[in-house]
Write a structure and sequence with these properties.
The protein has 4 helices and 7 strands. By secondary structure, the protein is α+β, with helices and mostly antiparallel strands. It starts with a strand and ends in a 6-residue tail after the last strand.
């Protein structure tokens, strides 16, 4: 199971729905939707600014997260941005993976290993 953050933005219709039913009803509806794909709601917060609500959920896989995002988008009163969250331990593992990468517009390949940037051409 992985953690996902959904950033929800309400249309005027969606905002009216929250005003009519209340914030706890919206949280409960999201918890039921998350449970319907085999997940668990970890956190639900309303917010000021460009994002109206932040949802953090534990879901079985990326397919379940995509299904949630598509269902919300298809409903009309809101849209979402989905972010896969990584643990500090996941980042430790990622930092140990060697990557060879050529930046756009560059003819030189750069190697990245264990967080250190290296130039493979200088290893002659």
């Amino acid at each position: 199971m992985g953690k996902y953050m959904f950033q929800a933005r309400y249309t005027s219709e969606g905002a009216k729905g929250v005003m009519a039913a209340g914030g706890t009803a919206r949280r409960d509806a999201v918890a039921k939707a998350v449970a319907s794909v085999g997940g668990k709601l970890d956190a639900f917060y309303f917010a000021f600014g460009g994002v109206d609500a932040f949802v953090i959920a534990e879901l079985p896989d990326d397919v379940s997260a995509a299904a949630m995002s598509m269902a919300v988008g298809a409903s009309g009163p809101s849209s979402t941005t989905t972010v896969k969250l990584l643990t500090p331990e996941d980042m430790d593992k990622a930092a140990k993976v060697a990557v060879t990468y050529r930046p756009p517009g560059s003819r030189q390949r750069l190697g990245y290993a264990r967080g250190a940037r290296t130039n493979p051409a200088s290893r002659a």
